[in-house]
Amino acid sequence: MRVIVVGAGLCGLSAAKTLIQAGHQVTVFDKGRSPGGRMATRRIGPARLDHGAQFFTIRSDPFAALIQPHIDQGLVYEWCRGFSGGGDGFPRYAVHGGMNALAKALAGPLDVRCNSLVFAIRPAAAAAGSGASWDVALDDGTSMAADGLVVTCPLPQANSLLVTAGTELPPDLISTEYDRTITLLVTLDRPSAVGEPGGLQNPAEALSFVSDNQRKGISDLPALTVHADAEWSQAHWDDDPAATIRALVDLADDYVGEAAVLEAQIKKWRFATPRTIWPKRSWVAPDGAGLLVLAGDAFAGPRVEGAVMSGLAAAAAFGA
Ligand SMILES: Cc1cc2nc3c(=O)[nH]c(=O)nc-3n(C[C@H](O)[C@H](O)[C@H](O)COP(=O)(O)OP(=O)(O)OC[C@H]3O[C@@H](n4cnc5c(N)ncnc54)[C@H](O)[C@@H]3O)c2cc1C
């Protein structure tokens, strides 16, 4: 089958990889400049900072099987075994070069087309003569025909591009809400006050995670990532960016320590974390023009592993 995957996050990439292994012809579209979605890494001068997911855990065999080659190649490494009080003994993995490097490695052998926003999915009657089930319209005015679709973007975005698909989505699915996250990224003139292992979970009111990217092992220069929690992020979403930076630098003062902030930026994640999780690992449209599967971290858990498990479930709907 010709399958189009919308979204080159970890869900879409793992679905695409599995579909290709099963002999399908797969094209992945992503609106971003590079693959990865919320597995995101940014450079500020010579510093490198993860600004979405900070680490992942491996709890299931299929996810372990997907990651193991990247551990063997030295790309994925064990960062630590927990963030406070000596940890809980359970490995937390990170990626040399930043979390986004894993997405790039997964995307490498695939046909992934970035800077390609899918804005409408229609039954293929409109794409007369192709013999396909679906017509996928892109923002550059082109379209591509497909026999099957895997749509992995956050559900509000999926819903809007499926309005033209002639498929009814379950109301509970459409109404899935996402918490927001505002992330502060700062480079420092000397090491931060964050001790080993370089990560702090829920360290203070309003903060959900503080990560020292140098101590974590991905940045040559001292650089902190500071995630505000959902409540703070919602309350400050529309604030002036400069005021948001000042407020977050204040909140992170204990972790910046004696260092001076060299540069500060923010990243706003509108669809950071699904508030509810669909009871199945993917959703297969019962009545579409062809096979249409929705997947993503709203289906199998709001984490990197959940996104991958949902991607594998989506591929399984195609017999892969
Ligand atoms: C701030 C933050 C911190 C996190 N920390 C952790 C952590 O430490 N550990 C952990 O396990 N998880 C963490 N997570 C969660 C984890 O990042 C996600 O669960 C996972 O990456 C989701 O993958 P996904 O493929 O489902 O979605 P995404 O990564 O969001 O991928 C969806 C993709 O769809 C693309 N897209 C959207 N609309 C369109 C369109 N119309 N056309 C084309 N492309 C489109 C987007 O550009 C995106 O690349 C964190 C998330 C955030 C935001």
Mean pLDDT reading:
95
Instruction: Quote the distance from N terminus to C terminus.
Output: 11 Å
The kinds of small molecule bound in this structure are: flavin-adenine dinucleotide
**Helical segment count:** 11
Ranges with pLDDT <50 over ≥5 residues? none
Query: What is the CATH first-level class name of the largest domain?
Result: Alpha Beta
CATH architect. name of the largest domain: Alpha-Beta Complex
What portion of residues belong to β-strands? Answer: 25-35%
Q: How many strands in all?
A: 18
Order of strands in the sheet with most strands: 7-2-1-11-18-17
What is the CATH topology classification name of the largest domain? Polyamine Oxidase, Chain A, domain 2
How large, in whole angstroms, is the Cα Rg? 20 Å
Structural class: alpha+beta
Characterize the main sheet. 6 strands, mixed
Task: Summarize the amount of helix as a percent range.
Answer: 25-40%
Question: What count of structural domains?
Answer: 2
